Amino acid sequence: MQTNKRTLMLAAVAGLLSGGVRAHGDEKHPKSADPVQKEQKDWGIAGNANTARRTIDVKMLDTMRFVPDRIDVKLGETVRFTARNTGKVMHEFVIGTKAENEAHAALMLRFPTMEHDAPYMAHVPPGKTGQIVWTFNRPGEFEFACLIAGHYSAGMVGNILVASK
Ligand SMILES: [Cu+2]
After folding, report:
1. 85 near 129, Cβ under 8 Å?
2. Residue 20: what pLDDT?
3. Best CA proximity match to 21, nearest among 98, 94, 114, 75
4. How many angstroms is it from 149 CA to the middle of ligand 1?
């Protein structure tokens, strides 16, 4: 199945990316490659749409910018993101740490046709809207980024600040 293939590939990528940054070994490892399984990430966890009280609309532009490019959320908040591609080329909305996104973007530059999918990313064709529901249960500064080859380095990135109070 294509979904499983993608998931396995992503798992391999995630393994590569997270190898050097794990500070402790308490992460739960999923037993299967079920794409709907919720896995705790350093930047939060997949959220339930029915607990999202806030929707944030983000535009994705061919000028390699997100509008807005800065989002403040509260610790524990579940947010529904609607990522609208108002341009003419494919864009992505990927939530992560700066380190994770940088490593992932570098990988996408080397393997531009690599398919990837996860609950914290949306691939949005021109004129379409993608949706992510994410629970920010870890405080800190994170990013949302487009990891299409060349877009991240062109500045297609925004900041998410998760305040602990
Ligand atoms: Cu893009």
Report:
1. yes
2. 38
3. 98
4. 8
Interval between CA 90 and ligand 1 midpoint (Å):
6
The yes-or-no verdict on residue 104 having pLDDT over 60 is: yes
Q: Which of 41, 83, 64 is nearest to 149 (CA)?
A: 64
Q: Which residues crowd ion ligand 1, with CB under 5 Å? A: 91, 146, 148, 151, 156
pLDDT tens, position by position, 27-67: 444 444 555 568 999 999 999 999 999 999 999 999 999 99
pTM, to two decimals? 0.78
| Those residues with Cβ within 8 angstroms of residue 54's Cβ, 6 or more apart along the chain or in another chain | 73, 77, 78, 79, 80
Show the tokens assigned to 135: 């629970």
